[in-house]
Design a protein that fits this description.
With 507 residues, the protein is mainly β. It has 3 helices and 34 strands. The protein has a domain of 124 residues. It is 7% helix and 47% strand. The longest helix is centred in the N-terminal third of the chain and has 14 residues.
Length: 507
């Protein structure tokens, strides 16, 4: 972390109703308000022992004239506010303080944040509506047919099996990279792109990958693609419709599958420090199971190992791709999740009329537990949302009403799965009905009886909710303070980031 010039500063730590000021060589920043709490459900004392902290990070910029006469924005402030919310038997206590990037506290906070969230950026991307991706199907058709369809005012339909033998499987595997110091690079990945039937193989890379031979990457992509052979449905029909763009001379074809006899592969994946675990859906639009018999190891959760080194190269071990945890192809997998310690996989799937949850050891492939959650979900568009703790996973199931983002206040069960104090894996908490359960659970922490959830809402406020087996015992809204910024010279531009949200139960 770069060293800053020593700045004379006045540090004030103030509770509710106070202010904090820092005088620096560049800017004067004043904060006249702190977080305001509004209790929505229950009482804050029910969550006694919970502490929530986060950083408020104003991204402040000024304009600086460059040597060629233009103005560009330059970062002029490294000020960060730390807010702490403590829930006690007497209610909530809120404090606000100021820190700088040079503080050891911030360095530790940043390292913790990277460890918790970095892996979530990567994994396996599937085609979804695969025929849209880079016009893969269109490249299979003759030039004459494509031009005829573009000229037609009526939709044109074709039988997919007349042009393709297998569905395209994975289109991208995105893995992390290390920098020259052996640390994960933020927002930088090593992407292996895979296309169907030898149309194109390759890797999207920058100058750091000069040493990587294109032929080697092509071979790895080919190995992965050829592993997944799923025959196309004989009766699937694709419809092409001429679309005129806003530019008069540009016409393109919109593609969609027609009828219920269709299949759109999509993928679920999680990433550990040395492998991608992933799977795909096996059910067609009408509920039939596709043919997975040509996949060498059958259907299940697949494992693709990789290694990283400091020269920016991530080595995908394509030859070691295989089934890590076999599953019945009739199982309809909705989601897979990973605990923060990367030791346990959670698989949510539907089989034999029941929605089920399995916990799998990521080192051995052993099934640690398997439990039936509820009868098969008949309606579409249920939300399954999961939030991962260190060695547990919280799962919520929400059925939306007709109004957008308005959820039923009754039929919304919540579970926590993981390892109990006796070392046994399984269900740790089940609350059958929870009002206001969000489809995105956000940050969570579990003390054995109470699950606390913190949700950041539109960068405007935090919502803290605490659950037990009886449902919600506390929910509070915490609005961020208004910020007063008084520059000594010029105007400030920027926005505020909220990051490094941390939760802790008192022991």
């Amino acid at each position: 972390m770069r060293k800053h010039m020593i700045i004379m500063a006045l540090f004030l730590l103030v509770c509710i109703g106070g202010s904090v000021a820092v005088f620096g060589t560049l800017r004067y920043i004043e904060k006249n308000e702190i977080i305001k709490e509004e209790t929505r459900i229950g009482d804050a004392s029910a969550a006694a022992g919970l502490t929530v902290s986060f950083l408020e990070y104003p991204l402040l910029y000024g304009e600086e004239k460059t040597s060629w006469g233009d103005y560009e924005e330059t970062r002029i402030s490294d000020v960060q506010w730390k807010h702490v919310i403590r829930l006690t038997e007497k209610g909530c206590e809120i404090s606000t303080g100021i820190i700088r990037d040079t503080d050891a506290l911030l360095a530790e906070e940043e390292e913790w944040s990277r460890n918790q969230t970095q892996w979530g950026q990567y994994g396996v991307n599937g085609f979804g509506l695969w025929f849209h991706y880079d016009n893969v199907l269109e490249k299979k058709l003759s030039v004459e047919l494509v031009e005829k369809m573009k000229a037609s005012s009526e939709p044109t339909r074709i039988r997919l099996a007349d042009y393709m033998d297998y569905y395209p499987a994975v289109n991208r595997i995105s893995l992390p990279r290390l920098d020259e110091n052996g640390k994960l690079e933020e927002n930088r990945s090593f992407d292996l792109d895979i296309y169907v039937d030898n149309i194109f193989y390759g890797i999207i890379y920058t100058a750091e990958y000069n040493a990587v031979k294109q032929e080697e990457m092509d071979e790895k992509a080919r190995t992965i693609e050829e592993y997944f052979k799923i025959p196309v449905l004989q009766n699937e029909v694709i419809e092409f419709t001429r679309i005129e763009d806003e530019y008069p001379d540009y016409v393109y074809l919109e593609q969609k599958s027609v009828g219920e006899d269709s299949f759109e592969p999509y993928w679920h994946s999680v990433l550990t420090g040395d492998a991608v675990f992933f799977t795909f859906n096996t059910h067609t639009e009408n509920g039939a199971v596709v043919d997975t018999s040509l996949i060498p190891d059958g259907y299940g959760i697949y494992r693709l190992p990789y290694t990283m080194n400091e020269n920016g190269y991530t080595d995908v071990k394509a030859d070691e791709l295989g089934v890590f945890y076999p599953m019945d192809p009739a199982a309809d997998v909705f989601d897979i999740e990973l605990t923060l310690d990367q030791k346990t996989l959670m698989i949510i799937y539907e089989l034999d009329g029941m929605l089920r949850c399995s916990l799998i050891d990521t080192h051995t492939g052993e099934r640690l537990s398997d439990a039936a959650l509820m009868p098969k979900i008949e309606e579409r568009f249920w939300y399954l949302s999961a939030a991962c703790g260190e060695d547990y996973i919280a799962l919520g199931i929400v059925r939306p009403t007709n109004r957008l983002m308005d959820y039923d206040r009754e039929d919304a069960p919540l579970w926590v799965f993981g390892k109990n104090e006796n070392g046994q894996y399984g269900e740790l908490l089940h609350a059958e009905s929870n009002a206001f359960l969000d489809p995105g659970l956000g940050y969570v922490i579990f003390d054995g009886e109470r699950l606390a959830q913190v949700l950041l809402v539109d960068l405007e406020y935090l919502r803290i909710t605490v659950y037990t087996k009886d449902g919600i015992i506390y929910q509070g809204r915490y609005d961020f303070p208004q910020k007063y910024i008084s520059p000594r010279e010029g105007d400030l531009k920027g926005k505020t980031e909220i990051r490094n949200i941390r939760l802790q139960w008192a022991k």
